[in-house]
TrEMBL record, chain A:
Protein name as it appears in the record: DNA-binding transcriptional regulator YhcF, GntR family
SUPFAM superfamilies xref list: Winged helix' DNA-binding domain (SSF46785)
Species of provenance: Chitinophaga filiformis
This protein's UniProt keywords: DNA-binding, Transcription, Transcription regulation
CDD domains in alphabetical order: WHTH_GntR (cd07377)
GO MF annotation list: DNA binding; DNA-binding transcription factor activity
PANTHER family, per the entry: GNTR-FAMILY TRANSCRIPTIONAL REGULATOR, HTH-TYPE TRANSCRIPTIONAL REPRESSOR YTRA
Residue span, HTH gntR-type domain: 7-75
UniProtKB/TrEMBL annotation, chain B:
PROSITE patterns, A to Z: ABC_TRANSPORTER_2
Classification via InterPro entries: AAA+_ATPase, ABC_transporter-like_ATP-bd, ABC_Transporter_VariousFunc, P-loop_NTPase
Name of the protein in question: ABC-2 type transport system ATP-binding protein
Annotated CDD domains: ABC_DR_subfamily_A (cd03230)
Keywords: ATP-binding, Nucleotide-binding, Transport
Record carries keyword Nucleotide-binding: yes
High-level lineage: Bacteria, Pseudomonadati, Bacteroidota, Chitinophagia, Chitinophagales
Pfam families reported in the protein's UniProt record: ABC_tran (PF00005)
Residues of the ABC transporter domain: 2-227
GO MF assignments: ATP binding; ATP hydrolysis activity
Amino acid sequence: MEFKESQAIYLQIADHMCEQILLDKWKTEDRIPSVRELAVQLEVNPNTVMRTCEYLQQYEIIYNKRGIGYFVTPNAGKKIKQLKKERFLANELPQFFRNIYLLDIELDELKTHYEKYKKSHFR
Amino acid sequence: MISIQNLSFSYRKNKPLFENLNLQLEAGHIYGLLGKNGAGKSSLLKHIAGLLFPQQGHCKVMGFESRYRQPAFLQNLFMVPEEFYLPQVHIKGYLNTYAPFYPNFDRKAFHNYMEEFHIPVDQRLTEMSYGQKKKVLISFALAANTKALILDEPTNGLDIPSKSQFRKVIAAAVSDDKCIVISTHQVRDLDNLIDSIVIIDDHKIIFRQNVEAVTDRLCFKNVTNMAEAGNVLFSDSSIRGHAVITPNEGTEHSRIDMELLFNAVLEKRESISQIFN
């Protein structure tokens, strides 16, 4: 896995794990690879992976069965979307707002762009 | 696990290397020991391993005073020095001679590590390159399964693929009862392995924080314009823009740039340490 420069490693690992779930590589109620396996595979400190697991557990994307390991929560996909939305609103949107403010772009103008984009990409 | 109290040491009179140095290291962590050339990284590691003796103060590992080098201490500590000597024997002979000193030595693990590093086991140690010898020694060190593992510049001399193999074997070796200390200049080789940063300078430890505490308090980012950055504690400019450290004001955790942090701690020690106090 190639790590980006800006984001904390545990958050990048969280993204990576969420992707495995969204791509259905890790299915609902499956046991995910152990902290140690993930640490070796990603070449990172197991404490970092542990932090990722605690973070994802806090958002109810995975859950812990004592002594067995972490499992994918039913509805994990929904929770992931919720988490991603939260993070987007907190981190990326202010950046985006800053840009459109500096470039004098009004929300109405943006709306037409957005509708056009949706049409060409998702219909 | 490792406890150093009021350590003072000098190689020559009136030129102290350590003055009242204090450091506590716990099991379950990988510590990255950083410092300039000549700051005393290797000398500190040698004190821990019982290869140098404190002139004042104490250096204890698992309750044993390192300098007495008691068997129960030596069985549970392994150090891979930067410069080392390996005898003129086959790997098998080396194992048969040295492994019995380590009661927890795991031969199967040794062969797994050697395989991971792609080193054939039927070779004579003297027929090997420096990098290959180093990999044998690292494999031995990990297989020895000691509670304390000390690695002085372990990635020096390793080629590009073996750096990745090295990270894998270290990640596999950490456990709650082990304390791993790695000194390094090549922080980029190891920055995802290290979970606590220890910086030595000016005869003492000037910084010791875990990665979590650092990212809680500091924010590392790259900006094209310094005006965007806000309250800059430290910056390093290049063609690609400015790498800056700012206080973390409630934003998402950023990735630590250990080189930048190291330079910041050395140059702006006051303002950085204020944030952690």
